[in-house]
């Protein structure tokens, strides 16, 4: 009787990791996978260098996020992530061990490893998933009355996840922040946040450059919107 691959994980994995294979290969996405919250994401993993159809008696597939096991195929598919799926027929016929993650959220962010044993060889591939949407930035009216308590607004819209910080500058100098803005969830599953700068305009503020700057995980560098104050009533 041929050995079940299921029994190889605990007892032989250490030894198998040291083995090299000129045949077994695992191919995953070469770039980061970006996804919107609530969408379904395919984490590709394709096994090559084995006979087709694949002999499941000799196969074990394990998906991990970091060090946490997300799903396995050892005689049958099992998952610790609700809703995750793998197409058994495609696995057998095509060597397709792609993992489907429905309704992804920011908690699904991370580096995933598709680890494969096909007796006696091992191979693995890694792919990174980012569930995020960068913000759009706009500002409100900039015409203010001289000497009258006033405010200007900055709106960050359509972003995910909801953590965002705002800094206000005048002529390049920080006048408020950085501070965490209160984000509100929209019906589309994204977030909006508004920040307000309060001031009493003086004559010297006319044509001053006001900047609203935000930081969010979906952008590589701070996003900044500059505008000129117009002080009326002089």
From TrEMBL:
Keywords, comma-separated and alphabetical: Disulfide bond, Glycoprotein, Signal
Gene3D superfamilies on file: Immunoglobulins
PANTHER family in UniProt: SIGNAL-REGULATORY PROTEIN BETA
InterPro entries, sorted: Ig-like_CS_Receptor, Ig-like_dom, Ig-like_dom_sf, Ig-like_fold, Ig_C1-set, Ig_sub, Ig_V-set
SUPFAM superfamilies xrefs: Immunoglobulin
Cited Pfam families: C1-set, V-set
The Ig-like domain, residue ranges: 10-132, 135-224
Protein name per its UniProtKB record: Ig-like domain-containing protein
UniProt signal peptide: 1-22
